[in-house]
Amino acid sequence: MKKLSTLSSYMLLSLFGLIMIYPLLWLVSATFRTNAEIFSSIGLIPSHINWDSYINGWKGTGQYSFGTFYTNSILLTLPVVVGTALSSLLVGYGFVRFEFPLKKILFSLMISTLMLPGAVIIIPRYLLFKQLGWLDSYLPFIIPAFLGTFPFFNFMMVQFFRGLPRELDESAKMDGCGSFGILLRILLPLCKPAVFSVSIIQFIWVWNDFFNVLIYVNSVRKFTLPLALRMSLDAVANVNWSEIMAMSLLTMLPCIFIFFLAQKHFVEGISTTGLKG
């Protein structure tokens, strides 16, 4: 009876998994189809495999190819991810391991910004970045990332640091370590799961960001992949959907690859964050 129950559970989970992954499999299949076949069939096996959608789609619809847009996404995303990981690490370490005036008030203010809708601050931020001369560049994304402006990730690191015993700090102080020595030599190796979690989530958010890049970036040559995909739909009257599907799949691949590559650290970071209040 127990084996039958286990087998039923596996079959049910496998069926549910197939249902969840079906849209992705259909997307892969659609990259090899014609427009007529895309809108007439929900099967996963195309009648004819054609690689032209990847070749023509990569060329783009204007003077810039998708190689340019891929480079732009990398140039935007990597500095933001590095800045977010470093700044959230320092903010979490500071709030948990140091005592300073107005600490509780500042922490409460930081947490309260989590409930602030992004639409409320988009106009003040735009005006500020316009005065600084940062429009039509990636500075509105990179500079704030290094200044700890993401309260969600700051809170994640605070909760993780709260789970690390202070005895580690005391032992390091006895060996002559200073504050940054304790962070770099003792606590940072233990924070690897949380840093991986912050980096993966931020990478996916920034890589797929459409609205904010649309607001601050005006030049086509600086467009990232989400904007390039939308531009491809507007550039021609008759859309070749197989090319759009092919470029959409190539856009998704870095997120999928990074998630599965660091899945162990990501799950560990999520499961160990917030154990102590």
UniProtKB/TrEMBL annotation:
Predominant location category: membrane
ABC transmembrane type-1 domain boundaries: 70-262
Membrane topology, from the record: Multi-pass membrane protein
Keyword Transport part of the UniProt annotation: yes
Localization per record: Cell membrane
Superkingdom assignment: Bacteria
Transmembrane residue ranges: 12-32, 74-96, 105-126, 138-161, 182-207, 244-262
InterPro entries membership: MetI-like, MetI-like_sf
SUPFAM superfamilies referenced in this protein's UniProt entry, alphabetically: MetI-like
Keyword field: Cell membrane, Membrane, Transmembrane, Transmembrane helix, Transport
Family matches, as Pfam families: BPD_transp_1 (PF00528)
PROSITE patterns on file: ABC_TM1
Similarity comment: Belongs to the binding-protein-dependent transport system permease family.
Protein name, per record: Carbohydrate ABC transporter permease
